[in-house]
Structures are given as structure tokens and as C-alpha cells.
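Archive entry: two folds, one per protein. Generate the first.
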Amino acid sequence: MSPIPAPLAALNVRTITYPARFQPVEKTAAEELARLTGATATAGNRPGRGVNVALAPHDWAKSLPKSKASRAGWMWLKLADDGTGEIIADHGAHLYAAVRLLAHGLPDAARAKLDRGVFLPVTFPWHRPHWDACLTQYWRTARKFDPERYVASLAEAGFTHVEVNGLHPHTPMEDSVPFEFYPQFYTYCAGFNHFVDTPLTQGLWPTQYLEANLNNLKRLAALGRRYGLKPGVCMFEPRSMPERLFQKYPTLRGARVDHPFRSRLPRFCLAQDHPVTKQHYRAALQALLKAAPDLSYMSVWTNDSGAGFEHTGSLYVGRNGGPYMIREWRSHEKIAQAAGESIVRYLHNLRSAAAEINPDFDVILRIEPFKLEQDHIKAGMGGHVTWEAPTLLVRGYEMPYLHPRYPEFKGAAGTPQQATLDDSERRVLEDSLQKDTNPILQYTAGTVACFEPLLGIPYPRQLHQKLVSMRDTGLTRISALGGLGNTPQTPYWPNVDVLRAVQFTPELSLDEILAQAARRYVGEKHAPALVAAWNEFDEAIAWQPPVMLFSGFGFCWQRTFDRPYVPDIEAIPAKERAYYERFGCFQHNNPGMNDLGKDVLFDLITREHGTKAAGYFDRNVSPRVAKLIARLEKLEAQTAAEPAAQAVFVDLLDRARAFQIWCGSLRMVCLWVAHVYGYLESKSAADKKRHEKLLQAAIDAELVNTERLIALLESGRTEVMALSAAGNNTFVYGEDLPDLLREKIRLMKKYRHAKPRIDRDILWRPAPGATWPKFD
């Protein structure tokens, strides 16, 4: 039996009672307290003589101050030295968190008052993981991931909801044609068609596929219930339908929603105002709710990844749609109004359908795509129909926040480096609340869309600053993009300690939070050194410059770790490039195939940006990370006789090395653009020679960088990144990454001396196996 944690041993708990007619989390919390104390937990029809664990509706709290409990989001802890007391909360996740808080995290001042009772209001009563990478989205096949331990960590950290619409298989089922990449965009935020069918779609997808996915959704919902988390879904909708449906029902064809460069098969959604479409969506959502009646929200992501609303301005092929919304020759303003009002009808149709089963169901729209329609959409919202964004100031995809260290770089909203909110956010929030719409602010707590595919990267100071800024702005509903990654494999990650403290014990300063966490991980003696290392890591991250797409969600889909960096990418024969190209977000005529500065028709990185960013890595990031690594190497050696403490420093050391390597590959991308572009634009031989020399130096550094990554992965000491147990796909590397890296090294050495070249005519190439006809 594990020793009882010191804070709990003093309480002398012997018996624990939870309600006979219990919610799953009440039993879970009681049994967790029993596990921690060595006590016995039993169900009862009334409060017992020992410690009683229950949710507020049971009215088991004998001394709870009723006036305080009228607000949403709280826990009540009252425990005497004789083993009696009560643990009560108004939300299931907070009940479990309360028990875990007793084990560690409760401030000494609060612990001293336990015999009289401690009332803890929560900072954010509505707090969900969003696009939860390992649990439901594109890292869901990550090796060494334990869903139950992860869900428990969400509740302990102060989350109130759990995302449950993850596909069961590694890849989605979606109609396609040869050499098409597009179906991989359906692997995340899976929509209705992957879980249920309706009279309209019956037979379009195999029953066994739908059942497997629906069973997975039900399993995750049950897991959430066990820890008091309310289940919800994040879906790209209205999603495209197979062409065979429109062959049968041609008048249901709505907007073309695919990306015409990335897809090879045009994809259309349903005409959203058609009565049959409305009935279909009502039936689909109600089918999900019948499978999981406590489903509590639906987050609607759209106008991307095979989904979109008709006649909106941000559809990839431009405004288009079916015949029922817009007549000919309307002005752009009138079209935007009609499109926005139609979106509102769609959202309210979902909401009214869900309300028949769960009256408290929320429908949430990601509002960034709707620059032109936004005002019309907001005007129709209210109550349980609301919106979310990484900033309340959003207007289309333009984000108003600049990088705090590099103001020439835009788009910092929602990233770790955007640690504060502008005062104008408060005014938008107040205006929205006056209209009965409580918006949700998206922020980053982990590594998704900022440090992919790394795990456990610590930035506790920036995270704490952001959480406090959100609280002080008046926000009560927030969502963490990407969730928390793989918390079972990041056991010493201070971000989680910060999340929990701001949620439940906000009176603690950041220094107190980190000192408390460090003492728990490495003991009193080594705690100051661990806090200092966290601070140094945090500071290095604050100086990391952005590299568009690569330093966000595109790191893996651009195959940034395993692609070979040579002056002329196409000097490498196609057969030799296939090992990485087949898994990347590449199309045969995508300029990103042979030009790291571009992707489809986007200019990702200019020569100026590449030069600046590489310089910032060299001057501001690399020296800080090198200093951190040197500190941690010494600490590893100094704690050799203390394995428990050494394990913590080894974990952080390996993550620092992973971050150093990650930054090194981003630096390589920047220098490739700077010097290949520089060579091609140079007018003199001397200038060209200078760029070649500097590019070769960058290649040398990346070869060393890659060797370090192989050594780090093969050491097996720390799970530093998400690696799929199923295999590679566009968004995650497989366990064979070391082998892919060796192939990268071989090709870089073989083709490094080719002259810089980019074939700009790649756009016009025919599909693989085809040739253009010849014209006289």
C-alpha cells in the first residue's frame, strides 16, 4: 500500500460515505479519497459519521454557507482531526478536484482552516479543452497515452468539460480519388456523418464504421462522467456530403467547401436552408444525444477542412451555394446579411433540437471565418447560442496582437507569447453580455499549434499571466486549444500546476505556485533549482520568433523534422523523396514541394522574414536554451544519488533538448529561404557564393541537429513528443521517426552540393501518370 500523503495523514480519515443514488463522480471522488487515506468508502442513504463526499444537490453539507453557494463554480472542504467532515461541490469535476487538492496544492492558510470549513470559488466556472489532440483529434493514436489518466488530469487541473468526438480508426473514411491528400482533413473535429446516419444519409457510410466511432464517443463520455466532466463535441460542420448523395438529390446541393488546390474531388455541403437539410441536422444531433444524453455543447468549426456555410466570403472558392438563399444581382452587403442570418438559423435549429433532450445544451460558433458576416451573426445570438475566438477583437482571420518581443511579426493571438489581453477586450465582453451572449476565449495551455509535436514544454509564467489577464477582463468561459497533450507522460509539467492554482487557489502568487510544485517534485533542497530552470525555459520561449505555418499546426504536415534540406529539393529524385512526401500536406503541383517559403498560393516566409527570424533564433533563443541545458546537465549529475529528484531534472533536460532541436529545424527552414532566395535574386557571383557558403553552414548545423534528435529519441528516457503507435500521417510522426531521420541525413549529404534552384512552374504540372497534350 502506498504511504498516505502527509497532509491527509493528519486528518485521520477512517470512513467515507457517498450517496447511494450517486453520480459516477461521487463514487470516484470517494474512492480516490479512500485510496489516498487508507479509509473505507461506502454508499449510504444519508450522511455518515466520517467524511461525506457528495454533489451539492444532495444537500449533505451541514455547515456550508448557503449565501456563498448561490454562485456557479465552487467547492466546500470541512474536515476535522477526528476524521469527520464533508467535501461538497456544485460541479462533478470540482468534487474530484477537491479530493486531489487535499492531497497536494491546498495552501497552508486554507489547510489550517479545514476544521472550520474552507469555501473555494472557482475562477472559471466553464473551462473546456478544445480540439483535444491526444484524446480525440489528430494525436489520438499517440503511443503511451492513457485516456483515463488523462481525463482525470483534466478534472484535477480545473476543467469542467471533456471533448468526446474522436474517431476510432487512425484515418477517416472519406470519398477520394487517386493521389488526393484531402481526406486527411477529416481526421479531426469529426462531424455527424462519422458517428450517426439519418433517413437522408442511411447507407452512405458502413454501419460498422459508424458504430465503432459512436461507441468510442460513448466510451469517452462515460470516462468524463466518471470524473465529473461534461461531454461535448467540436465538429467541422456543415461538412461535405458524398457526390453520390447529390446524384440522388440534386436540389440539396449547397456550397462547394473544399480547397481547390488541395483537393482533387469537388466537395459540397447540403443547402442549409432546405427543410430536408434542417430535419437531417436535427435528427443527427438528437441521435448523438440519445447515445450520450448529457452531451452539453457543440462547437462548430467551419469554412475549412471540408466544411462551410453557403455564400460566405471566406469559402476557399469564394461565395457560392445552393438556390434557396440568394437571388441574382444582390449587393455584397445584402449577400453577407443573408448568409449571416442563415448561419444563425442553422445554429438555432441545432440548439432547439438539442434542447428537447438537454435544455442546457450550448451551440458555439468559431467566428473567425466571418469577417463580413460577423455583425449579422452576433445580432442573432443569445442564451445558449454563442461564439468563440482566440481574441474577442477578432474580425476575420486578422488577429490584432503582435509578438511582444518582435512587433514586426503579427498573429500572436492565442499563442503562449500573447500573455495579456488589451483593455478593449473587456468592452467587447461587456457589450456581448448585455445582449445575453457569453463568448468563450480560446487560449493555449499546451503544445498544439505552437510547439508541435513536442510534449510538456513549460511556460508557467506566460500561462499564469494569460489566465490572470482573462480573469481580470471578466471572462468566465475559456477553452484550452489542444487540451493538455499527453499528461500521463508529462508528470512534472508545471503548466498543469498553474492551471489548477489559478482555478482553485488564485490567492497564491506565481512564485508560491511554482515553489510548491517544485517541492513536491524534487523536495525542499532542489526546489529553487527546478524553479530557476522553469523560469529560464519560459524566458527562452518568450523570445522564440514565429515561422508561419511551421511553428504552428504545420510543423508535422510540412515534415519539418524528417525532410532533407538541400539547395535544390528536386535534385533529389522523386522516388527518394517519397518517404516523407507521401505523409506530408503536399500535392504534386504545390509550390511547397520545392520551396519552403510557400504553400499552395501562400507566401509563408519571405527572404526578409527568414533572415530576421534566423537571427533572432541565434541571438535570443539558442544562447538561452544552451545555458538552460548546461544547468540541467549539472543538476542531473548532482542528483545521481537521489533518483526521484534526478528523474525530474532528466525529464526537463530532455524536453529542453527537444525544444533546442525543434528550434534548430525552424532555423534551418528560415535560412533555406534566406539563402536560396538570396542566391536566386543575387546579381553578382560574389553574392551568390556568399549565400551558398551560408547555406552550407546551415546544412552542417541541421545535420548535427538531426543526429541529436535520433540520439534523444533512441535514449528512450523521456516521451518528448507525440509519436503515433499506428503509424505516420500528416499531423503526427510514427515510431519509425529515427529511421526517417537517418534517410534525411543520407539524402542531405548526397545532394547538399547541388546549386540552389526552384522550379516556379511546378504549379502547372499534370497529375502523376498524366502528360499534357501537345499543341501545334
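Generate the second and append.
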Amino acid sequence: MEVATVSGQVSDTELTLSFEAGKLAFQADGAVVGRLGDTMVLVTATCSRSVREGIDFFPLTVDIEERMYAAGKIPGSFFRREGRATDQAILTCRLIDRPLRPSFPDGFRNEVHIVGTILGADQENPHDVLAINCASAALMISGIPFDGPIGAVRVAYSTDGTWVAHPSYQAGDESTFELVVAGRALSDDPDSDIAIMMVEAGGTERAWDFYENGAPKVTEEVIAQGLEASKKWIRESIELQRKLAAKAAKPPIENIALFSDYQEDVMARVLEVGKAPLDEANKITDKKERKIALDEAEAKIIGQLAGEFEGKESQIKAAIRSLTKRLVRERIVNENVRIDGRDTTTIRPLSSEVGLIPTAHGSGLFQRGDTQVLNITTLGMPRMNQLLDTIGIDDSKRYMHHYNFPPFSTGETGAMRGPKRREIGHGLLAERALLPVVPSEEEFPYTLRLVSEVLSSNGSTSMASVCGSTLSLMDAGVPIKAPVAGIAMGLVYESGIYTTLTDILGAEDAFGDMDFKVAGTRDSVTALQLDTKIDGLPAEVLAQALQQAREARLKILDVMETALSTPRDEVNLNAPKIVSIKIPLEKVGEVIGPKGKVINMIQQETGADISVDDDGEVGTVVIGSKDSGAVEEALARIELIINPPTAEIGATYEGTVVNLTKFGAFVNILPGRDGLLHISKLGSGGRRVERAEDVLDVGQKIAVTVDDIDGAGKVSLVLVEPLDGSGASGPTSSSGSRSDSDSVRSSSTKSEYVSFEDEFERGLVEEFGDLGPQAENSDERSQRRSDGPRSRPSRRRNRR
């Protein structure tokens, strides 16, 4: 097969977007390698040639294979190979699926499999949007029936108020908001308008800091401008895909049949006998009663028509569903009345509550109509951050939100075997909505895990999870920047009329033409997700939907504030009390000690949990415990290590023997301060001691006097009282002067003392290596002996 390549400059950037077909994976129906910068993605599209028996839906599957070699890494798992898909990979799958699925013809039942393999990840250009464009391009050349192309772009809102296309990871982090937008052209005209198909958006981690420094906030008007701006870059991708298809498209796959859920005669009879009972059932406002009435009406219709259409019960059911959808939509457009009796702008009854779980660090219950979500916040030490093994630039995650959707929440039975893609996607959406208001680690040195338990579902549990998260965080004492609420909007387009719905039900989501979720504070948007099923969304309709969503969000925030208006002043009694301090990089080794001796001893003696890390420039010590007294004690001990008290020449101290060597003993006299008691000074009455172990034990308490402190800060000690044969010394002298017996030495002892400095240096070098002037205590010397020379401390020393 001939290789076809197309490329084009991305407007307003220095990037080039390219597509190549015909070189790799040529047995797939369609295969395209896309490149943006040095990020490369291979996406294949394959279609089955037959339809599985009994299937009544379109089986589209999207998989993303993130290969660690793309980023020059080896997987960190035990087996050293890639395992289950990461959250980012699952989110990318959903980003591809959502705009592609509506672009296949109605009645298409052949299985289609889209596989994206990340070949190169340059740590600058994200691969997710590139994968969307490559998936569309692969379908365009595959011969699979597909109403494309679909173009996609990520745009970032910079701190100076401009939208930047295809930002790098680093540029995205420096922006306040990011939009991922996918759409298709309304015609083959290069200048035709772009119909927005999908939007995934959220504020960045530093957005609030940028706002406080004067960056413009992301409002509903800014969002609308961003969607309009994105159309230029979407159009460029679409044109590039059309050029590729002109060069490499395969002929349409033969014998593709399109299926109808029901025949026209079946629909005619269902309309005749079922319209009245279905219409009456849909006027019942209570969900359970309405479902019972609809089931009874369906059973009655099937009973009436089963004999007439023998063997076509599935068609009768499909026709009943189609008629129900039509009746619901017509009532909304013509009468401005929805399934549960509300008008188009009314929110269902709201309630909020906090502090439900006594053992939890924070808990919040949010309910909107029949949708009920309980959120739990758990606070932990920074070492509990989630470690990420991905091909992106992030290696850890401090703030996590997990979403659980059990079958009982809809009154059904079902298997529970871990989170599905939908649950992961909903959890990440709610997580993204709160990210801009979560305090930084410097402000609040905790790891945060939030869990949303969906207890009852009837529309927009993801936005209820946003509201529950805010309540739970404030109940836990997390100083969030502002409360965040979310609302789900819908749209019905019928007979040329656009009707926007506030707070949609589950049925309205299924029967409507748009699912539009918006989360934010009182004055800015923090997250957004939009999916449409129609070609094009007029700007005025989008503006109305955004304004309606803002009005609803403000009402929800009012109700939430009746439960708790601001974060609690302190963290919950059950949560750990954590303090974080910065220390000089050269002090990191002293705090840890050789093989963790110092830090472990402090943890054991105080009961506090301590972690130490550094960024190559400064060290960070985090201390945590449920007992605030333990935190204070550990902090005091670490501060003494960082800023140890200074020994004074002539002062007497009761010290502790911490190390014995062949040239003497190291004695700790002050926190973080050791001195050398040379072996020449251990004997009494002129007697020379051959080994320090003969007269001293590690851990022994002895009284010593500071004899000298040299220019490098090394402390020389002498005994206050001579040691007896057992190693015990006499009583501690209260003065800073030496005893008479200690001041009288033999000539041999004096000659040994004269050479003390040389022997001291030789002994240190022989025992520990050349340390230079920084070594001030035996802990640091032992650290260097065990670890060897190093340019800077390890980044992960806090593992016990």
C-alpha cells in the first residue's frame, strides 16, 4: 500500500500537525499515525463484517494503549509491563467515543473497534487530543460508514485573557482554564460553520492563585468565546483529514446493512393503541409510580398487538420507547411541562447536611430530588499521595476523588466488580470541578481523598458529587478558596425550537439532545462537560444554557450554605494534625540520620509520623499525628537539629555516648551536637586505655567538659571525673572547670594530646572519609559513611 502523508501548520503556533497512512498496521481497515511535536499516536479502526445475532445497539469500543517506552520509561510494576488502563487512558477513551458515536449512521450494528497506541510522548504535547483527530482520520480512510471528519483541539485560557491552541503541559499549567473541544463541519465548504459535538473542560490547579494576582476569571461569557475560538483549529484538522482521505481512502465496505428497531406498520399500530395510555402515564410526576404506570401500559400494548405481530415483540417494545420519547419531547416544547411536572427552569427540591459520619474526617450529604450523594473526605500525610506511573509529566497526585455507582441506586440488581469507565469518568469530572479551589500543599500539607457514594440516582449524580464534595471538604476543615456547586442542563430541539432544561432527569438525558454539566463558584466556572446529539448549537442557545446554569448554580450554593457556609476553623478531631516546615538542603541528612536512625527515633519516642523530602533546592519536613502534643514535641526536636544550641568552651554537660571508635568516643552533649572524647583522655592516673569499648558503652551517660572547639566547629571533650574500671565516672561537677585529677597528666599523655588534632583528622578520614567542614555530629558522619558521597539527598527518604 502506498504511503500517504499530509501535514499543516497549526495557526498561531509553531506546531505542525501531520497524519500518515499506509506504512503501519496495514491489515486494519484504517490506520493513521498522527504527530504533534514529537508526540506520536497510532490509531487503528477495524469493523466486523457481520452483525452479532440479537444485538440492538451499536457496539463501538475504544481502547487507548499507553506504552511506557513512549516516554523512555520502564513500567514500575512487579512484572515490568503495562497493566490495566490508567485513569488518563480511560478519560482519553471517553473523549474519543463521545464525538465519534453520534457520527455513525442510525441502525448501524457492526462492531467497530478503535485502538490508539501511544508511540511517542515528548513530555510537552499531550496525546489525548491528537488521538481524537487520528481516530477520525482512521475512520475516514477505512471504508467504514462514518459521517466525519471530526476535528478536536485543546485551548488554554492564558493569564492575559487569550485562548492558546494546543498548549503544552507546561503552558497548560500556567493557564487558568483548559477546554477540549471536538466538532464537525456542517458542509464540505471549507468556510462552513463547525458544529460543536463534545466539550471537556476544567480549571487548573493554580487558577485561583492567578485570579488573586489579577488574571481574568473564567465566566460563562469567556467559555462561549473559547468555544467559538476553537472552531478555527477544529476546521484546520478537518481539512487536513479530508486531504488524507483524498489520498488514501479505501472503498466503502460492502454488504453493510442498516437495521431499523421496528417496522413502520408496527409503529403505526403502537401509535394507534398506545398513545393515550402512554401519554397519561408520562403525566405522573413521581418516578416510581410513573415507572409502574409505564410498565403496565407497555404490557397492555404488547398484549393487544402480540397476536397481530407474532414474533415481533422486540419491535413493539422499541416502538413503545420511541413513542414515549416523542410524547415527552412534544409536551416539553408545546406545553413547557416536563415529566415530573416542572417547567424548564425549576430545580427539584434541594437539601444539604454535614457531619453525618462520626469517624470520618469530613462528610456531606447532598440531595436534589431523587438524586442523593454522600461524600466522605479523608485527610492523610503527604506520603499517602498517589504515585503515578504514566507517560505524562505528573508523578504523583495529592487530591483524589473516587465515585461509586452501585446498582441499588437505581433500584436494580447487578454485579459490583470494581469501577467501570463511566464511574472513573464521573469521578474525574467532579475532581476537576474542585481542583481550582483546593488549597496548595504549602497552605494545607495534607493528602486528600474524597469518595462519592451515589445512594439514589435520577439525573446528574456527577454534579451532586461536586456539591457533596464541597460540603465534605468544608466539614473536614479544608480551607477551600470558595464553595463549588454543579448543575446538569439539557436541551430539546423539536420543530425548529430550542428548549433548554435546568436540572435534567435521567429520562430527559436519554430523550434529549444535549447533556451539559457546569460547575463553578459564585463568580467563575471551574468545570464543564457538554455532549450534543444535533448538528450545531447556535451561539445564542449556548449563551442561554450557560446563563440558566449560572442561575441554578447560585440557588444551589444558597442551599448548601445553610448547612455550612465556610470551612471549619480546624480539622476534625479524628484527622491527623499536620505541620510542614522548610529546612536547608544540607540539613536533610541530619534530620534523617544514618539509615533513618534519627527520624525513626523521633517517631518512636514522640509517636508522630514524619516525612522528609526535597526538591533539590530546599528540604520539606512534614509532621503529623492525631495528638497535637506529639506534633509539637517532634517539631521541637527537629528544630533543635536544624538550629542546634552552641556548645561553650569550659562548660560541663551530661552527655550520652553515641558511637565508639578506635580513637575514642563520640558523645552527644546537646541536641544535634556531638563532641569527641579522645581515647587519650579516657584513662585515669596516667593509664592508657587501649580500646574505648573497655571503659564505655553506647548509650552510657557521662559528665564531660568542652575542652576546645576548632574553626570547623569540631568539639573536643574531656571527662569531668575519671572512669573507674567498670566504666563509671564520678559525680558530675557543677562548674565548668576541670577537676584537679583531670588537669594533671603524664608526659606521655601530654605528648599524645599535642598530636590530638592530627590524630583526630586521621581517624575521621579513616573511619568516615573526608567530610569537609560541614560535619558537626556523628549522625551526619555515619550517614555519609553508609550512603557514600552524593551530590544531593535522595527525593524519597521517608519510607520507613
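Annotation attached to the second fold: The first strand starts at residue 4 and ends at 9. The CA atoms of residues 720 and 733 lie 6 Å apart.
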